[in-house]
């Protein structure tokens, strides 16, 4: 899974990327690159707890790949804030994190001269809509020409009808994530990857003085940009950067001084995981405890295939114990005594946190 981090220059997006990835980026080199990328572990206290219980040789977290894009052009420039290279690569992302600057700093002026959260979020939404509209209009022109040439027109007519629906939506300045897509047209989403249909996380990079008011600020932005596929989260780049340089024992003291419970950055990573409609199941043992990433709604057989294709093809049964029950009882034996240990077939829908052992031929 890939998540793109985007935003205006000096918004804090590269600081966010560096803190998440623990990779230092030389600003002189970064300015010459279109993007930087890194694979990041998804923090999960459940996996930590299971690792403590089994003391395995290895612990493997689920991962997400983050891509830090170069800063936008000034929105006032001709052609908008996106260049062609950005559009090509951004369309391949599974979700977008838009870092929005919420702090004032006279030494580093905002590229639009003032700090305005609502304006910057709206600018991105508008540009996504315009980029998709330009693509859709071009696609409609081609499909209309194809209708004049082809004998078998059913598929062309079907796609043309969907593109017209997209065009009407976008012309109303409504992003495509706001409309429903049935299974028959989801292939168009997969083929064309419209930007305004992608899940969007708005990461508000707030000033450290905003810590007490962070929930109110998030609520204000969330109420303005309401969507089931938009998630608004706060983070504090300056605080997070300092946190990343501390030992674990010092981090808790540092966060307490700011009135923070748990790392906002960890919550942001976990929120990105949830935004994509993902969840985890676990495999445990003396050799390894591991968190496996699956989409919500996947079956036991599909989940087994994530471990290995042979497990999918030769699936027999899944031994299943819910995480909470396992922690409550403390062992497989006690879970069996209480009836929490189950054998499930291939159609079983795996729950977040299930501990699985796959039986296969």
Short description:
With 361 residues, the protein is of the alpha/beta class. The protein has helices spanning 13-21, 27-30, 45-54, 84-90, 117-149, 154-171, 186-192, 214-224, 237-244, 248-258, 264-275, 300-307, 309-313, 323-329, 332-338; strands at residues 2-6, 35-41, 58-60, 63-69, 95-102, 200-206, 230-235, 278-283, 288-295, 315-321, 342-344, 355-360. The radius of gyration is 23 Å and the shape is flat.
Count of spatially separate domains: 3
The biggest beta sheet is recorded as: 6 strands, mixed
Could you name the CATH class of the largest domain?
Alpha Beta
Spatial extent as radius of gyration: 23 Å
Question: Can you say what the CATH homologous superfamily of the largest domain is?
Answer: P-loop containing nucleotide triphosphate hydrolases
Task: Tell me, briefly, the overall form.
Answer: flat
Series of secondary-structure elements, N-terminal to C-terminal? EHHEHEEHEHHHEHEHHHEEHHEHHEE
Instruction: Count all strands and give the number.
Output: 12
CATH fold-level assignment of the largest domain: Rossmann fold
Q: Specify the structural class.
A: alpha/beta
- What distance separates the N and C termini? 30 Å
Q: What is the topology, as strand order, of the major beta sheet?
A: 2-4-1-5-6-7
* Average pLDDT figure: 88
Low-confidence stretches: none
Which range does the strand content fall in? 15-25%
Tally of individual helices: 15
Measured as a percent range, the helix fraction is 40-55%
CATH architecture of the largest domain: 3-Layer(aba) Sandwich
């Amino acid at each position: 899974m890939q998540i793109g981090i985007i935003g205006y220059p000096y918004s804090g997006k590269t600081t966010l990327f560096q803190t998440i990835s623990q990779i230092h980026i030389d600003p002189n080199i970064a300015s010459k690159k279109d993007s930087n990328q890194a694979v990041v572990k998804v923090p999960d206290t459940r996996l930590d707890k299971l690792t403590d219980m089994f003391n395995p040789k290895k612990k493997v977290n689920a991962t997400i790949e983050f891509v830090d894009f170069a800063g936008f052009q000034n929105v006032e420039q001709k052609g908008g804030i996106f260049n062609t290279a950005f559009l090509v690569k951004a369309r391949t992302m599974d979700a977008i994190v838009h870092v929005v600057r919420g702090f004032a700093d006279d030494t580093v002026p905002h590229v639009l001269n003032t700090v305005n959260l609502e304006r910057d979020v709206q600018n991105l939404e508008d540009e996504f809509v315009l980029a998709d509209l330009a693509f859709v209009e071009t696609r409609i022109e081609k499909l209309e020409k194809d209708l004049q040439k082809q004998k078998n027109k059913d598929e062309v007519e079907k796609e043309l009808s969907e593109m017209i629906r997209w065009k009407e939506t976008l012309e109303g300045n409504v992003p495509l994530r706001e409309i429903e897509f049935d299974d028959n047209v989801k292939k168009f989403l997969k083929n064309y990857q419209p930007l305004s249909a992608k899940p969007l996380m708005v990461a508000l990079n707030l000033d450290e003085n905003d810590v007490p008011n962070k929930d109110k600020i998030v609520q204000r932005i969330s109420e303005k940009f309401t969507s089931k596929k938009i998630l608004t989260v706060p983070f504090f780049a300056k605080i997070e950067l300092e946190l990343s340089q501390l030992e674990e024992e010092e981090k808790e003291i540092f966060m307490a001084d700011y009135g923070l419970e748990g790392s906002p950055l960890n919550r942001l990573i976990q929120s990105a995981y949830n935004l994509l409609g993902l969840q985890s199941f676990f495999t445990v043992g003396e050799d390894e405890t591991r968190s496996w990433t699956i989409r919500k709604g996947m079956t036991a057989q599909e989940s087994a295939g994530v471990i290995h294709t042979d497990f999918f093809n030769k699936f027999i049964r899944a031994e299943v114990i819910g995480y909470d029950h396992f922690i409550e009882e403390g062992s497989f034996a006690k879970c069996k005594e209480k009836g929490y240990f189950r054998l499930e077939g291939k159609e079983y829908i795996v729950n977040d946190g299930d501990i699985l052992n796959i039986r296969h031929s």
